[in-house]
């Protein structure tokens, strides 16, 4: 498998270029050498031929001079002009022979040729003069010149010069011949050497070709072996595999893909992968959309996706992506695993959990409530033995509910459905609530809970209820392992962190029990782990496992250590919340908290914070009246017992004073009211028993805020699912007024008649998109109405930039939706207030 890429490696260009250049170069050099030798041989041949021609020309020159002289002699003796007929042609021939005998490369440098020219000219002067004398009638003078013998001497000298020239040319020709013969031998040796070189070069080329063929054959064998292995794996794997080219279209698919998707290989060839499954939404190149950057995939695994069968049905799949580098670019391998059976089993499990949750918790809650009523004596006083049996039944029922809750939490953790709130909380409040909730169990076992007094806040970011679950579990375990009469200490603090020089929020729970056995230390945080497997009274062994998951999801850690003096100390470390500038949201509802008890005030403040409100706390009747006179409150949580007069008196005085803007009141009373008369005649929202009635308190708080003298925000909910519209209405009301619309036309009519403060849009409607309403979401002032997209459909980045918030529909999204609606309503109200203030100031300045 690892050798296949080597077989696919591109051939080296260097060897190819070297051979390509060497062969023509060798032939070129050989041809150039042979050409040079041929030119030299040709030069020698021409030299020999020129020498021979000169000798012939020299002999012919003498012959023509003799003919010219004979013609002169015959004309002198007879005076007959016919004798001169050959004279002129001979003269022309002689001049031609002289030119032929001249060597251009030695023009002016050959003395014999110079002498020859002079002698020929001298001879023709003598001939021309005698001929001219005869024609002038002076034959005697002409004959006298002939008799003097000057012409004969010139001719003799000409013969000597010509003989010398012929002799010299013959010597030159002989030398040239010798050089020609020597050159021919060198040429023969050069040809022989070239043949040898070419033969060796041919053998080298053949050796290289043979070696290349052997390597190619070996590479081909490896490639065929790798291809066969890959093809076998490709065809035999049970997962559907598709190979995509760089443009995102299908190149190959295995038989498993055919069985899963119903397409034959030819049907999907060159078709976009979106035909089968959308793994690369958005715009741009396929590689950028699928997250392939610098050769690496940002998200190689995609879970819970839907593939499309050829017949149109959906198939639940998990997707694994890989990258394959090929010469034609990076290809993406898509592996589709059919998880329909897993989904079915998960659905069966979810149905079972739902059944456990509903069919067991509901009757158990009724059982516990009924047992509580019996224990409280509503049906008469029970005898001690019956009272004991009721206590046993109630305790075991509560154990069952805790076990069910723990199993549901474990399932949420495994399926990544454990959702945690993220808000600023004080860890002291969590500690106090845990202490209050654990007092009953501690009292039964005669254990003292020592909750440390912590003067400074210990702020963290997290889910108060889940952290309370962790602390309560630690206190429960510590209480169970401690001997009767012992104490359990719990404390929180901000301590330096030596690792990075920062601080950590620390919560500790210390018991005086026997400690943790060495064999159990390694698995104490495991699921279904108990120190003594036979001890079923301690639960199913899920508490610490759940606690560790909750702490880790808060970015913290949980550990244990031996306590000095015996026992165990559990330590929870959490990152502290960033520094708070203390600025409260000016548009948030403001609550007046009238409570003298610190622990009770902390518990009530937690509920107020969860509802997104800000609070001012007072401890006495006088402070409460002063606060109401000083500012406007949306609601007041009033303890029944207040120093200076009590909560009922505060409500009465606030209602009686017409100068006060009395807020809607919620009375918080102790569990045992005694003979205190009920405030039936007062206008209060509700009467809350404490502690523990958080749900009822939340409803009462929302009702009180809704009664405040401020306009009720109007929320437009656009969704074609009637059930979803009903759920959103139940979630958001009575804080806001809901206008429901199932179509774009209905929503437009609502916007025109009753402009909303916030619009909640679903993207997927029948034949339309909720975004089609955006151009109409403008109020009378021309200001855009805030928009929340609440949809199960993905939204593009461009579309998300046009709205104020995007929420994906889920079981937890309704809480997020409520918080987001509150935030946008407050921001819009604050903006309107600022605008109104600016207009008012401008009017005052104009009037002034």
What brief labels describe this structure?
17% strand, 5-stranded antiparallel beta sheet, alpha/beta, 5-stranded mixed beta sheet, 848 residues, elongated
Write up this protein.
By secondary structure, the protein is an alpha/beta fold. Helix content is 53%, strand content 17%. Mean pLDDT is 78; it is low at 1-8 and 672-681. The protein has a five-stranded antiparallel sheet. It has a five-stranded mixed sheet with strand order 9-11-12-14-13. It starts with a helix and ends with a helix. α3 (87-101) packs antiparallel against α4 (111-135) and α13 (464-481) packs antiparallel against α15. It is elongated, with a radius of gyration of 58 Å. A hairpin with a 5-residue loop joins β1 (240-244) and β2.
Number of strands: 26
Question: What is the CA–CA distance across the termini?
Answer: 90 Å
pLDDT averaged residue by residue: 78
> Uncertain spans, ≥5 residues at pLDDT below 50?
1-8, 672-681
> For the largest beta sheet, what order do the strands appear in spatially?
2-1-7-6-5
Topology record:
Layout: H1 4-7, H2 13-78, H3 87-101, H4 111-135, H5 139-148, H6 150-236, E1 240-244, E2 250-253, H7 255-261, H8 265-268, H9 286-290, E3 292-293, E4 296-297, E5 301-308, E6 314-326, E7 329-338, H10 340-376, H11 384-414, E8 423-426, H12 427-444, E9 448-451, E10 459-462, H13 464-481, E11 487-496, E12 503-510, H14 518-521, H15 543-553, E13 557-562, E14 568-574, E15 590-594, H16 598-610, E16 614-618, H17 621-630, E17 635-639, H18 647-656, E18 664-669, E19 684-689, H19 694-707, E20 714-718, H20 722-732, E21 737-741, H21 744-753, E22 758-761, E23 764-765, E24 768-769, E25 787-791, H22 797-800, E26 805-808, H23 813-847
Parallel strand pairs: 9-11, 15-16, 15-17, 17-18, 18-19, 20-21, 20-22, 22-25, 25-26
Antiparallel strand pairs: 1-2, 1-7, 3-4, 5-6, 6-7, 8-10, 11-12, 12-14, 13-14, 23-24
Helix pairs in contact: 2-3, 2-4, 2-6, 3-4, 4-5, 4-6, 10-11, 11-15, 12-13, 12-16, 13-15, 17-18
């Amino acid at each position: 498998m690892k050798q296949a890429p080597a077989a696919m490696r591109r051939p080296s260009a260097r060897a190819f270029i070297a051979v390509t250049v060497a062969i023509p170069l060798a032939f070129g050099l050989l041809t150039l050498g042979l050409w040079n030798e041929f030119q030299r041989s040709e030069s020698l041949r021409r030299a020999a031929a020129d020498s021979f021609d000169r000798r012939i020309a020299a002999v012919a020159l003498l012959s023509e001079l003799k003919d010219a002289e004979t013609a002169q002699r015959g004309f002198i003796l007879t005076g007959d002009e016919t004798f001169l007929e050959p004279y002129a042609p001979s003269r022309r021939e002689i001049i031609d022979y002289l030119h032929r005998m001249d060597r251009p490369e030695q023009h002016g440098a050959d003395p014999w040729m110079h002498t020859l020219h002079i002698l020929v000219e001298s001879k023709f002067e003598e001939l021309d003069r005698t001929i001219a004398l005869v024609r002038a009638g002076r034959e005697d003078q002409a004959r006298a010149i002939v008799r003097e013998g000057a012409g004969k001497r010139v001719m003799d000298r000409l013969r000597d010069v010509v003989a010398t020239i012929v002799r010299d040319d013959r010597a030159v020709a002989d030398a040239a011949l010798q050089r020609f013969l020597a050159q021919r031998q060198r040429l023969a040796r050069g040809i022989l050497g070239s043949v040898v070189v070419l033969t060796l070069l041919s053998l080298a080329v053949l050796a290289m070709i043979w070696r290349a063929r052997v390597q190619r054959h070996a590479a081909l064998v490896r490639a065929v072996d790798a291809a066969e292995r890959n093809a076998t794996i490709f065809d035999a794997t049970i997962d559907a595999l598709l190979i995509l080219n760089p443009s995102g279209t299908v190149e190959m698919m295995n038989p498993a893909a055919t069985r899963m998707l119903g397409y034959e290989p030819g049907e999907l060839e060159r078709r976009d992968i979106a035909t089968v499954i959308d793994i690369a939404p958005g715009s741009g190149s396929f590689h950028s959309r699928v997250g392939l950057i610098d050769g690496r995939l940002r998200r190689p695994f995609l879970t819970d996706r839907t593939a499309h069968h050829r017949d149109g049905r959906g198939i639940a799949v998990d997707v694994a992506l890989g990258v394959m580098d090929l010469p034609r670019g990076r290809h993406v391998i898509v592996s589709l695993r059919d998880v329909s059976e897993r989904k079915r089993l998960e659905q069966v499990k979810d149905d079972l959990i739902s059944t456990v949750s509903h069919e067991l918790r509901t009757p158990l809650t009724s059982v516990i409530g009924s047992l509580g009523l019996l224990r409280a004596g509503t049906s008469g006083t029970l005898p001690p033995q019956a009272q004991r049996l009721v206590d046993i039944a109630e305790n075991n029922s509560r154990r069952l509910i805790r076990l069910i809750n723990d199993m549901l939490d474990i399932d949420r953790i495994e399926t990544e459905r454990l959702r945690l709130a993220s808000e600023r909380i004080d860890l002291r409040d969590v500690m106090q609530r845990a202490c209050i909730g654990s007092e009953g169990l501690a009292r039964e076992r005669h254990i003292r809970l020592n909750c440390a007094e912590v003067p400074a806040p210990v702020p963290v970011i997290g889910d108060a209820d889940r952290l309370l679950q962790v602390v309560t579990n630690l206190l429960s375990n510590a209480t169970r392992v401690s001997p009767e009469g012992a104490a359990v200490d719990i404390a929180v603090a901000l301590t330096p962190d030596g690792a990075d020089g920062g601080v950590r929020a620390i919560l500790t729970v210390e018991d005086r029990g026997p400690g943790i056995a060495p064999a159990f230390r390694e698995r104490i945080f495991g699921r279904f782990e108990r120190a003594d497997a036979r001890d079923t009274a301690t639960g199913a062994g899920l508490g610490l496992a759940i606690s560790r998951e909750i702490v880790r999801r808060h970015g913290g850690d949980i550990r244990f250590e031996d306590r000095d003096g015996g026992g165990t100390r559990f330590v929870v470390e959490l990152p502290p919340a960033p520094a708070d500038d203390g600025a409260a949201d000016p548009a948030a509802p403001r609550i007046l908290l009238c409570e003298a008890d610190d622990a009770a005030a902390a518990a009530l403040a937690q509920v107020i914070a969860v509802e997104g409100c800000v609070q001012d706390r007072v401890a006495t009747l006088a402070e409460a009246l002063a606060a109401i006179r000083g500012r406007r409150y949306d609601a007041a949580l009033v303890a029944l017992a207040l120093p200076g007069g009590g909560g009922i008196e505060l409500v009465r005085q606030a209602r009686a004073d017409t100068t006060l803007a009395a807020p809607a009141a919620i009375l918080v009373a102790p569990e045992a009211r005694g003979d205190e008369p009920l405030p039936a005649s007062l206008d209060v929202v509700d009467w809350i028993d404490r502690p523990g009635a958080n749900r009822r308190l939340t409803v009462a708080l929302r009702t009180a805020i809704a009664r405040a003298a401020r306009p009720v925000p109007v929320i437009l909910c656009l969704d074609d699912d009637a059930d979803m519209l009903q759920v959103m209405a139940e979630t958001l009301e009575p804080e806001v007024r809901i206008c429901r619309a199932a179509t774009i036309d209905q929503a437009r009519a609502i916007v025109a008649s009753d402009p909303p403060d916030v619009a909640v849009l679903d993207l997927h409607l029948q034949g339309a998109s909720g975004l089609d309403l955006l151009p109409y979401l403008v109020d009378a002032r021309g200001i855009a109405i805030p928009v929340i997209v609440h949809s199960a459909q993905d939204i593009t980045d461009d579309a998300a930039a046009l709205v104020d918030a995007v929420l994906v529909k889920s079981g937890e999204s309704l809480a997020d939706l409520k918080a987001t609606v509150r935030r946008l309503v407050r921001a819009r109200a604050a903006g309107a207030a600022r605008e109104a203030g600016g207009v008012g100031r401008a009017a005052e300045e104009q009037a002034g």
